[in-house]
Structure formats: structure tokens, C-alpha cells
Structure prediction request, 409 residues.
Amino acid sequence: MTQTSATQSSGGQATAIRPFHVNIPEAELAELRRRIIATKWPERETVTDASQGVQLATIQALARYWGTEYDWRKVEARLNALPQFITEIDGLDIHFIHVRSKHENALPLIVTHGWPGSIIEQMKIVDPLTNPTAHGGSASDAFHLVIPSMPGYGFSGKPATTGWDAPHIARAWVVLMKRLGYTKFVAQGGDWGAVITDQMGVQAAPELLGIHTNMPGIFPVEIDQAAFSGAPAPSSLSADEKVAYEALQFEYQKGIAYGYQMGLRPQTLYGIADSPVGLAAYFLDHDARSYELISRVFAGKSEGLTRDDILDNITIAWLTNTALSGARLYWENWGKLGFFNAKGVSIPVAVSVFPDELYAAPRSWAERAYPKLIHYNRLAKGGHFAAWEQPELFVAELREGFRSLREAH
Prediction:
């Protein structure tokens, strides 16, 4: 990675915004391939499905492609074609993509990725959001776009002390947007990005006009606690609410083993910092539906995410050695914030419900969690990594979801 220094005229070194380019030494790529090829494999699982975790055939197919055909330089070139920068906030270097639209009245937007994610998740939405007239939209749909790497992820710095939890990141994003000169802006997120964006909504900085989420924190506290405890669905729930409750309960019981591990003992995960294949398997095992969508491309099927999409994201984490620094975000928030519960957001909120998300958020709970709900839509296709998997649908949702806030901008 290389960077040069350029200080904004309005501030000193503490507010410097430094251009950034990715340039991974060839020796690191050769070492990655060597480690992949040298993987010590266990025997295959004793079941015919994914109930024991990532299947041997899937991860071996991934490793064959990663070790022999995958080309990191392709994504490196795509990254370096975008304006990237680093700036220091609260003593930590924050890396971000910043693309200003050519359209004068574009709405500033900060988009936050999740785990096991990176800015790779958002790369397909950059041009459609900033250059809408080239993608079936009008000039009035344009956004100025900021996509940061979360602390401890990708090319951002790794916190050396505790305290970088979701509320802290939310505050840092407001600092970032103001440092870039934006006096009014909106925010979007999924996965951890949704939790952070919800926190931005709770904090309600005067510059923040509204938020959009594709993993809305909508469960009433007592419902969230009941699902976590394993209790049957309350009889008072509507049909949509019962479906969401059962999906959440499944997630707590069968889905987020990684969340418990990283929330309680992240430092123990030395294996995923040392083994590329170990890291890849851990990243693939996010949720049942996402795993299905990912594993099928390594079985020769297409649609949605490609093999390169998946490996671009894993490779960034490997090359930056951020497996453990990223994992600590779970520890920072453990016992403080739920992932899925309502948090008291009072500003305008747009919600997009993708059918293969961890749960389909019912409108009733969305309206209760977000009293100023300005947009709610259930999509026909798409899952947890919506911007990555269904960028066209995702972009349309952002355009529509934020349309009513543009006059305030």
C-alpha cells in the first residue's frame, strides 16, 4: 500500500486527507499462493449437507481457483481507478473511497460495509450512484459517495486500544463527512454497517438527514430476548411477525456461531490469521442462505456473486492481516448492543427488505422501530449482501428511499 500526504487547507496535520493507492508486493501474492497449496486438509464432513459447516468440496474448489487462477491485480486496478484516501480520526487512520458526482445537486451519502466484509461489497454501486444518467437514472438521482473501511478492516488502521465500538464509529463517520465539507448528508448500511448506521440515527447529528438500512434493527426488545432464549413465538404475533421471529430464532440457535466466538474470544482465532483457507472457510460460513449463494458458484453455477467477488473480499482481509482486528468489533459490542433489536432511532429512515436476508422485517415492526419511516419496500430477490449481490435493485432502493430528503439537502 502506498500513500502520499495532502493536507486540507482548513486544518493541520491532524485533519490531513492523504491520497491512497493499493500496491501489494508480488512476494506477498506468491506467499499467499504457497500457503493455499500447502493447506493441510481434514477428512470430509459426515453428512451430505452443510449442517456441519463449510463443506470440503466447496472449500477445496475455492482453494484450487484461488491458488492457481485468481488474479488479485484485477481488483487492485479497479480499486486504484477510484479516488481513495486516508485520514486520521481519534488517533486512527481511516481509509475511504470518495467519489464526487459530476451532478451539482448530488446528495452526499456514506455507506458502511459489514463482516466478513470490506469496501469490495460496495464497488458495484459506485458508478450507478454517482453517475446515474449512465445507468438508467436522472441527474436528480445523483449521490456524492463516501465508502469507508471500518476500523480494523481492510486498509483502515487497527485499533491498539479498546473503545472502537459501533457508537464510536458512528461518531467518527460524522467527523469524516464534515471534514470532507458536507454539511448535510445521509447514511446507509447492512450487517455491521446497519448497526453503525442505526447508531448514527440514534445520535441524530444535525447534519444527518436520514438513513437507509437493508438489515433494520426492528425487533422489540422483549421479542428479541424471547427469540434468543428459544421460547416459542408469542401467540399475539401477526403472520409476518411470526415468520420474522422464527427466522431470528434460527439465526440465534444455528446461524451466528462466529458471532459468539468473536464476541467472547476473538484473540483465540490465530488459525484464520495464519491460514488463507482457514480464513476463507470462516468467512464463507456467515448464514445459511448466503452460504448457498456462494457455494453454488464453486460448483459451476452462476448468478449473483462470482468466484472473484468472493475471493476479492477474502484476499483483502488476508493481505491486510485484519482477521483478528476485524473480529474484535464483535467483542467491543458484546453485551452492549443487540444486532437486530430496535434502538430508538428518531430521524427519517428508509428500509429495504430483501427476501434472503437473515429475516424479513415486517412493516409493523419497522414502523414501530422507526417512527419516521419514509420508505419501506419488499424486494423479489437478494440477500444479506444486497449491494454486492443485487447492485441494480440496491441502487434503485437508495434512489427511491432518499428521494424525499433531497429538498432538505
